[in-house]
Design goal:
The structure is a single chain. The protein is an alpha/beta fold. It is built from eight helices and ten strands. The strands form two sheets. The chain has a six-stranded mixed β-sheet with strand order 6-7-8-3-9-10, with helices on both faces. A hairpin with a 2-residue loop joins strand 4 and strand 5. Helix 5 crosses helix 6 and helix 6 packs parallel to helix 7. The longest helix is centred in the C-terminal third of the chain and has 17 residues. Bound molecules: adenosine-5'-diphosphate (2 copies). One adenosine-5'-diphosphate binds next to helix 1.
Length: 239
């Protein structure tokens, strides 16, 4: 019983070169998948497809039973609200406080109007505070996002993504802007919380050592093709 099925996915930005070529992958519940590969391999494009930030040239993306490329507006909205996204540059609202940034993770489940006017339920606030406490930010919930360090901002990013109770978590180079020690800490939070909340995660990284440490499955992409798809133990240095 798979959560996400990708079939014959092909992408060309210019109509000539295929930056992804006939990708076929199945993702199951509770996997923690790391996608690795050199710069320009197609990793970001792949992540952005699944979230439908870019539209593929061909293929199918079946998420939780719906073909997202054929889905109507309501099905798409429902699917998106089940997919959390974590970004390299955090994408926080810098002038907003930490708590509000996390509550905004529910956009799609609440109206933009309610969000703008801060109309969140007490229950939601409590959930956001609990998440922030789990990543050690309980003391900082009323700080402005731009007062935080990069590692703290990414912890907020993780909480925001989990606030919507997603089935799938997508992270595009979540530690690329952080130092090695902070990177490991962020990966620990991401891995542990994914497990705890039963979320399937797909994380793009270019640090192979960190990928091996956390992934339950590694997918290697090179020049738009899957060149490795297995348990990290089987990864050799030459992919
Ligand atoms: P990676 O994340 O592995 O570095 P990307 O998915 O960002 O790879 O890029 C794959 C290829 O697609 C690269 O050759 C890149 O230049 C190209 N590309 C990425 N985004 C765009 C875009 N918006 N328009 C045109 N080409 C793009
Ligand atoms: P990354 O490697 O993290 O994907 P890039 O520097 O490749 O970052 O891309 C940064 C932005 O530029 C992305 O939004 C990407 O879509 C866009 N981009 C990358 N390559 C191209 C390209 N050849 N033509 C147009 N846009 C591109």
């Amino acid at each position: 019983n798979s959560l996400l099925d990708i079939r014959h996915l092909t992408m060309s930005y210019d109509g000539k070169v295929n930056v992804l070529k006939d990708i076929n992958l199945t993702f199951n519940k509770n996997e923690f998948v790391v996608v690795i590969g050199p710069s320009g391999a197609g990793k970001s494009t792949f992540i952005r497809f699944i979230n439908l930030l870019v539209k593929p040239t061909g293929g199918e993306i079946i998420f939780d039973g719906d073909d997202l490329l054929q889905a109507n507006t309501n099905q798409l909205k429902a699917a998106r609200s089940n997919i959390g996204m974590i970004f390299q540059d955090y994408n926080l609202i810098e002038r907003s406080n930490v708590l509000k940034n996390v509550l905004n993770g529910q956009l799609g489940k609440i109206s933009a109007f309610d969000s703008i006017f801060g109309r969140f339920t007490e229950e939601d606030k409590q959930r956001a505070v609990n998440l922030l406490e789990e990543v050690g930010l309980g003391e900082h919930i009323y700080k402005r996002a731009d007062e935080l360090s990069g590692g703290q901002m990414q912890r907020v990013g993780i909480c925001r993504a989990l606030m919507q109770s997603p089935k799938l978590l997508l992270a595009d180079e979540p530690i690329a802007s952080l130092d090695p020690a902070t990177s490991r800490l962020i990966m620990e939070y991401l891995f542990n919380l994914s497990n705890q909340y039963g979320v399937t995660s797909i994380v793009n990284l270019h640090q192979v050592a960190i990928a091996k440490e956390f992934a339950t499955r590694i997918i290697g992409i090179k020049k738009g093709e899957v060149v490795f798809d297995d348990h990290p133990d089987y990864l050799t240095d030459d992919i």
